[in-house]
Amino acid sequence: MSLFLTSTGVAGGGFSTIIMLVAMFAIFYFLIIRPENKKKKKTEEMRNSLNLGEEIVTIGGMTGKIVQITEDTITFETGEDRVRIQVKKWAISTTAKMEAAEAEAKAKTPGLFGKK
Description:
By secondary structure, the chain is α+β, with helices and mostly antiparallel strands. The chain folds into two domains: 1-49; 51-110, SH3 type barrels. The chain has two helices and five strands, in the order αβββββα. Strands 4-3-2-1-5 form a five-stranded antiparallel β-sheet. The longest helix has 42 residues, at 7-48.
């Protein structure tokens, strides 16, 4: 009955543990971190390329047309009564063009086993 581990057992176990940790980090990076960074970059590019007259949707769900853009704020009009609301650029969720492109891409993508 041996209560002590041999030196080869410790070294081999430590090496395989390190390999498993590196593999888990790689999987975590490629499945979670990298796609999230791509999504943030795409959203930031969209916010920086906004133009006057574009239809936008805020994070809170308000929609309207852009009437003024400054460095970090956007003013847009909502509805027929032309109420103007000013929000920070980070509060813009999508544009009408982005929503249309996403809907079109989703319509073209076949469902499970090629069926709609």
